[in-house]
Amino acid sequence: MTAKRADKIATIILDVIAGVIVLILASLLGYILVRGLPEVSWHFLTSPSKAFSSGGGIGIQLFNSFYLLLLSMLISLPLAMGAGIYLAEYSKPSFATDFVRTAIEILSSLPSVVVGLFGFLVFVLQFQIGFSILSGALTLTVFNLPLLTRNIEDALRQVDFAQREAGLALGLSRWETVLRIVIPEALPGIISGVVLSAGRVFGEAAALIYTAGQSAPALNFADWNPASISSPLSPMRPAETLAVHIWKINSEGIQPDASAVSAGASAVLILAVLLFNFAARFLGNKLHKKITAG
Amino acid sequence: MAKRKMVLGVLTMVVLALGLGACKRNDGQSITIVGSSALQPLVEAAGEQYSNDNLGVFINVQGGGSGTGLSQIQEGAVGIGTSDLFASEKTGIKASKLVDHRVAVVGVTPVVNKKVNVKNLSISQLRQIFTGEITNWRQVGGKNLPIVIVNRAQGSGTRATFERWVMAGQPAIAAQEQDSTGMVRQIVASTPGAISYMAFSYVDKSIKPLAVDHVAPTAANVHTNRWKIWAYEHMYTHGPARGLNKRFIDYVLSNNIQNTLVKQMGYIPVRDMRVERDVNGKVTAVRGNE
Amino acid sequence: MQNQNDDIRAALLRKSRSSKLERRGKFISWLCIAIIVVVVFAIFGFVAYRGLSTFFGTKVTLWNFLSKTAWAPGTTDASGVPKVGALPMIVGSFGVTLLSALLATPFAIGAAIFMTEISPRWGGKILQPVIDLLVGIPSVVYGFIGLSVVVPLIRHVFGGTGFGILAGTFVLFVMILPTVTSMTVSALRAVPRNYRQASLALGATRWQTIYKVVLRAATPGILTGIVFGMARAFGEALAVQMVIGNAALLPQNLISPASTLTSVLTSGIGNTVMGSLENNALWSLALLLLLMSLAFNLITRWIGKRGAMK
Questions:
Q1: Cα B117 to Cα B69, B109, B120, B191, C302, distances in angstroms
Q2: What pTM did the predictor assign?
Q3: How many domains, chain B?
Q4: Which CATH number fits domain C87-309: 2.40.128.110, 3.50.7.10, 3.40.50.1000, 1.10.3720.10?
Q5: C 241-270 → B contacts, CB under 8 A
Q6: Is ipTM > 0.85 here?
Q7: pLDDT in tens, C83-94
Q8: Quick check: A181 and A164 in contact, CB under 8 A?
Q9: In whole angstroms, what is the distance from residue C218 CA to residue C223 CA?
Q10: Could you tell me if residue B59 is inside a domain?
Q11: Radius of gyration of chain B (CA)
Q12: d(CA C104, CA C125)
């Protein structure tokens, strides 16, 4: 009887905890959206920001955020994929593996401001890339790799070992087994890991202040040649992202409407992450269905 | 297989991007200005106008602090480094290699939370507040309310200016420190009994500036050095300014910008100053202005 | 005939396409690992190089650094030693990290159990997106909510200025919750299904199964999650900086302004000149940050090994 009662009580407590977490998020979201949404308009989303007068928008920053996210994902995803596959499928328990794992965990615990300064000294100054999207993307890759690798490794490990045995028994090589059987099976997990880290990248400010820079020069949206500096696609232009913009107007902004712009930008940032989350989840499920023919 | 193609594709993209970067470096139609966050809004606004007037020219403005500005210009990593301090006041900077261009003056004023009913402090009262000798507003004629000090981060240009002209060499008591003016303003506005200091350009309705020794913090008082807590805003170049760097500095110093943008944004045009102050604090009257 | 035999022999001995692919694949994935390790070493070497120069060629000793409480690297004390006492920051960092982990752990484990054992359907539909979204909220936004909601609330309830370790703890609690939760979820999901089936078959209730079997089996994974959360708390800069008050003072209580390693590091780095003592002292803080997270890591590993089910 006591065991059953304990079971009941535990269930109730767990329900409450789940409820509290949802409540925390709901109030956070509510606070940001209620304060910010009234400021958001089509004009706000598309016009460039103003340095000291009111009425500025966040158009360029919004574009920069997405472009930077895309570039850094393009660099970090294959790397993290490879690393995750090696750790989950090939590595044997040994001192070296342990060492690598520790190294990755250490990297993930680095404060982003240290990563940012590292990126500043190495990419911006040493490689002479300058304050640019590329510097920012490379720095974000450093920042992003450990967690992404870890997520992918976990997702791969969760795939039942019988699946691998089946693949090997069919005469597939280990690599082919991983590509054809394990990865498709682990895809939802991988996607969730990617979304998690994309959220982190999207909202990251400290690592970008010194790498992608704090200025958003006007862009010529008719020019799609990546080699031209005013083109939105140019990876060599400095690019202030939305998160950096929020940080900047809150810390040094002298626009009369700074708090309104920051509230609006925060709301947009949250909405973008929200949208992005749902899209990725939807895509993950679709992909999983397609690949596993389920 | 698909995986390998992806890796190859990404590598190609990165190489391509780097290659493009190398091409871009040659056109010389952009400069980077790094440093003082106090000067950043002005430079940004001027840069925006300059780009509008000269198509295809890009002025990239970064903050980061006066220390960053000076060390970057010293290493020749950027075109112009901005600073709230004379280069020789900062340790680790070889000032002789840098050329100073004073583009504006900023006044720094003590500010308090609006509920503090004190309007004026003597300079020694102000000093005693920041050294921790005076801890309650009652001691300087206000309500019975503990004083909450909000300081700027160590090494910040605004703090250096404040300490130099108010503290007279005495160390400030360890207290809250914030590294940006916006944060200071927000904290002072919301914390009862708070006191801090900031550039004139950041003062708004949410906080209350104080008079010191019955001199009000106004631009006119800075012109004559009656208000003593002020500093030059410097643009440093590595050697004499050349090319676009020079054109931009000249643009900022032109009547057009000094009389409109500089004033609008709460800075004080250098040419309005009736006095000049050197790095040692020696004040001389300027003739020929007006 | 001979010729034909040779052909067959060659065909058999030649590496198949598949095995070539296998070797290439293995090499590529190995390369990725190698790149990451190189990056880690580069950062480590770089931080160590900068951070250690504080102690060479100056009068600063390691003991000074760890035990003194005055932080003003630009100035010297009576005996001419630069004031680089990092103790207040060390105490502050440990304070917020341990407290927020203490607060977040029960919530995270509870939420993870809810998601994996009690109600996977609701968990997957509502809690999982909520957790993902919490990760996505940028630290700047957390900081400003902390500043505009948490700090005034603490000021109202406990008095003082509201800035301090307590405010930092609340903000960090929400920030590390998703990290710990999602890693705990992974750890719980990794517990083989037959453990649960065996336990239930023995007549254990769901809670007994969770408490006695699933949680025990997942302990190492959960601990790793907690360390990850602590590492994030340790390394978080912008949000903490906004609410902790940044006073390089030993915290008297939970509501007096304090500082953490990261808050001093971020607020100071832009105002110092590369290569000067002021700058190097900040890098020493970064090095300390790295070493402490390394230590955390090793301890958990040790616990994990000892607690693992054989």
A1: 39, 17, 10, 14, 59
A2: 0.80
A3: 2
A4: 1.10.3720.10
A5: 241-242, 245-249, 257, 259, 266-270
A6: no
A7: 888 888 888 888
A8: yes
A9: 9
A10: yes
A11: 22
A12: 22
